[in-house]
Design goal:
The termini are far apart. The relative contact order is 0.13. A hairpin with a 2-residue loop joins strand 6 and strand 7. The chain has a five-stranded antiparallel sheet with strand order 4-5-10-6-7. The chain is built from eleven helices and 14 strands. Helix content is 31%, strand content 23%. Among the domains are: 1-54, 2-Layer Sandwich (Uridine Diphospho-n-acetylenolpyruvylglucosamine Reductase, domain 2), CATH 3.30.43.10; 176-275, Enolase-like, domain 1, CATH 3.30.390. It is α+β, with helices and mostly antiparallel strands.
Length: 290
């Protein structure tokens, strides 16, 4: 295995293309180094992009949204004031990734680029209508994140390509979001189920669903919800959960996942709805286990 530290994006994608299928990108390395240690991946080349000078900056904020670069860490996402104000669900999800040490190194883009259906930040990014930019030796292309995931550990980012940014549009005035997940234990663990809810000013709800399908799923949007209790709310939850196809595995049985994704979806929608009219920075939910 060779180690390569390019200084430009062109050098990085050229190296990846030359070893397409057997090269891996190194940024935070919190997943890759564990996989290497256990022999789950055996790349011929590691391309370390942390010193690439023309990468998209870690975070760029403008009037229409936020762009995240490859070196933006989970700690940076969780603590940034504009992210906390505009995208509370994304800040909450970032706070739940691993431990403090892991969040200080793990990258936001890497969390989605791995293509895991249990990735914590993928549900809020999908619900917030994020898009990705992918670079290769032939140029750049963009895609909505909801179209980026193809299968477990498979994405639109083909061998020889590199995800260079994630763009999240600024939410409409009067909308807000919330994220909840359930794990087998408090602290460092993969999600058994997770959900990010976005509720617009008119009461329409959209959710991103994690660990209840082969990829991160998008549910909704619903029609306007006028009552946040009773049959109208339960009908909206039914609609939001229509794409979910939970299975049983080592982390939970299928009936348990079915029950708990419904509980978390209801709670997340209600939490997002309660935040809609608050202009101040929301109080983020620090509970990772329900």
């Amino acid at each position: 295995m060779r180690y390569y530290r390019p200084t430009t994006t062109t050098e990085a994608v050229t190296a990846l293309a030359e070893q397409a299928g057997s090269a891996r990108v190194l940024v935070g390395g919190t997943d890759l180094l564990v996989a290497l240690r256990h022999g789950k991946v055996q790349p011929s080349l590691l391309v370390d992009i942390k010193r690439v000078s023309d990468l998209v900056p870690p975070i760029t904020v403008d009037a229409s949204g936020v762009t995240f670069g490859p070196t933006m860490t989970m700690s940076g996402v969780a603590s940034h004031p504009d992210v906390r104000r505009w995208f509370p669900s994304l800040a909450e999800a970032a706070l739940m990734v691993g431990s403090v040490a892991i969040r200080n190194r793990a990258s936001l883009i890497g969390n989605s680029a791995n293509g895991s259906p249990a990735a914590d930040t993928a549900p809020p990014l999908i619900a917030l209508d994020a898009s990705v930019t992918i670079a290769s030796t032939t140029g750049e292309r963009s895609a909505r994140l909801r179209e980026f995931f193809l299968a477990p550990r498979r994405t639109l980012c083909a061998p020889g390509e590199l995800v260079t940014s994630i763009r999240v549009p600024r939410p409409a005035q009067g909308s807000s979001s919330s994220f909840l997940r359930m794990t087998r234990r408090r602290g460092v663990d993969l999600a058994t189920v997770s959900v990010a809810a976005v509720v617009d000013h008119d009461g329409r709800a959209t959710v991103g669903l994690g660990a209840v399908g082969p990829i991160t799923l998008l549910g909704g949007p619903t029609g306007p919800i006028t009552s946040w209790s009773g049959t109208e709310l339960e009908g909206a939850v039914d609609e939001l959960l229509r794409p979910a196809t939970p299975i049983g595995d080592v982390r939970a049985g299928q009936p348990y996942r079915v029950a708990m994704i419904r509980v978390l979806t209801r709670r997340a929608v209600l939490s997002a709805a309660a935040r809609r009219d608050k202009s101040a920075e929301p109080e983020l939910n620090a509970r990772s286990t329900w």
